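pinned: reference chain
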Amino acid sequence: MSTETNPRLDFFRSQIGNSLIQSPSPLGRWLNGTLKDVQHGTMTVEVTVRQDMTNPLGTLHGGAAAAIMDDLVGMMVFGLGREYGYTSVNLNCDFLNAARIGDVLTAHAHVVRAGKNVIHCEARISNLEGKIVAKCSTNMIQTGVKLPF
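pinned: its structure tokens
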């Protein structure tokens, strides 16, 4: 599907600047980020660290960081306009710097290689100072689930 006739990508572009509280992903609604940039094969979201996203040390929980990146990659791959849905096969994360309650983080995902059945992607989360909080690489595999639009 070309980017000129991609209703999913058009939908995400129409949501730039808006909260993802209306995301089709329940986890995405809980994360409640703000969509910042949408291009074919890349997507950026901003997330503010809340207390319910932290570990006992008061820093962003690794599982929450992984969820931010995994959900963003999933949205981005959905936005590619493929006929079938994709799901994560793996998610290899590195946690490099702490983020605390109230920190505003930018998560960016991009496609590295889009094959017929497997799409390899990378994502990273950075703080306002540009320090990388977490990064990941992931492979998404095509499912047998046809997507509605």
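why pinned: The chain has three helices and six strands. The mean pLDDT is 95.
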